[in-house]
Amino acid sequence: MTQLLRSWVDSANTATTDFPLNNLPYGAFRSTGGDLHAGVAIGDQILNVTALEQAGLLDLPQPNVFAGGTWNDFMALGPDTWASLRAFLTGALAEGSARQADLEPHLVAMAGATLEMPFAVTEFTDFYASRNHSFNIGCLFRDPANALPPNWLHIPIGYNGRASSVVVSGTDVIRPNGQLKGPDMEMPIFAACKRFDLELEMGAIVGTPSNGRVSVQEADDMIFGYVLLNDWSARDIQAWEYVPLGPFQAKATATTISPWIVTKAALEPFRASTPPREKELLPYLAEPGPMLYDIDLEVGLAPDGKAETILSRTNYDVMYYSAAQQLTHHTTSGCPMRVGDLLGSGTISGPEKENRGSLIELSWGGKEPLTLDTGETRTFLEDGDTLTLRGAAKGDGYRIGFGECAGKLLPAPAIS
Ligand SMILES: O=C(O)/C=C/C(=O)CC(=O)CC(=O)O
Ligand SMILES: [Ca+2]
Ligand SMILES: [Mg+2]
């Protein structure tokens, strides 16, 4: 296991920071009202990468890669350029680097910056790949005797979502109105969602485009990095609309991502294998090596103005399919993948109740309310609740953190 790499940025040299020199995640930020800049997180600082490029300090194969303040154009330059920027930053930010004087003027305090979307989402696909989550949802929406669909152990199941609804952490989320029909109602009504939920997920970002089918190894090589992802879900809208084509408006309100892209390179020491196969996979889906990651995850809920309760803790390594397998399956049809495509892992639930990644599972369809540390109860989310996902891979004396993936729920628009 690698150890903490020391930086001349002192705040990066602690066991508690999300952003030691080992991490170097990529984001986008504004300092009070200013332009959008690309940046890399180091301790409690952001190194302004757009400014480094403008100052001629970066060796890139083309000009103005970071002029727009996001990472799409950089991703498009390919894995060799990804590796060389990371090598440059690792060396230049290391303790004792001769580059300190060049870089120091381009540091800004993270506390004074607004974090924005680190990349423009090209398309968004969401999967259904945690065995425990899929079993639980099958019990709650369908039949406990046949909870896991017959295709589930053979295909990474997914649906095409909406890139337009992906937002960065800190963006308020408005409770949706929609078409609802309870089992005892004769006609549906149009009303505010009453069962608004979260989904704890990881998002994988495609950095290399494809045209035609790719192998699992090629798919892994195409992934640039990972974010935390909350796929907000309207369970009552979902239950009525999903037959037969799957979720539509129930999952189109918002999907929140964490602000920092943690690169695959930073996660390399934490690779983990998918669990044993219950049915042999078709050869095109076989993994040549470990392609999940050991990342501890947690979900916190804070009612308006009150203290937070941790609702759930789990780990990304419980997933039955890796992002590489999902990406491979996505290309079997010939579907081209593009730079900036985002793949949701699917809700991450572990085996125990405290490992469940959604409220519909934690409250078992609303039948078993949770008691928060404040004393109040929840089945689903209430207006004013702030939901926060956190995640980190834990090394020897350091952590590779993602920053927070948070959103506050605001009331539904009035229906006229
Ligand atoms: O089983 C269903 O009908 C739908 C399940 C979901 O909620 C879909 C989804 O977003 C997948 C996931 O996040 O795991
Ligand atoms: Ca989802
Ligand atoms: Mg969504």
From TrEMBL:
Enzyme class at the top of the EC tree: hydrolase
Pfam families with a match to the protein in the record: FAA_hydrolase, FAA_hydrolase_N
Catalytic residues, chain numbering: 133 (proton acceptor)
One GO BP: L-tyrosine catabolic process
Superkingdom field: Bacteria
Annotated positions binding Mg(2+): 231, 251, 255
Enzyme Commission code(s) on record: 3.7.1.2
Residues annotated as signal peptide: none
Fumarylacetoacetase N-terminal domain residues: 22-118
Cofactor(s) this protein cannot do without: Mg(2+); Ca(2+)
The keyword Magnesium belongs to this UniProt entry's keyword annotation: yes
Pathway given in the UniProt record: Amino-acid degradation; L-phenylalanine degradation; acetoacetate and fumarate from L-phenylalanine: step 6/6
Residues annotated as binding substrate: 128, 142, 238, 242, 347
Domain Fumarylacetoacetase-like C-terminal per the UniProt entry, residue ranges: 125-400
Transmembrane segments: none
InterPro entries: Fumarylacetoacetase (IPR005959), Fumarylacetoacetase-like_C (IPR011234), Fumarylacetoacetase_C_sf (IPR036663), Fumarylacetoacetase_N (IPR015377), Fumarylacetoacetase_N_sf (IPR036462)
NCBIfam families, sorted: fum_ac_acetase
Name of the featured protein: fumarylacetoacetase
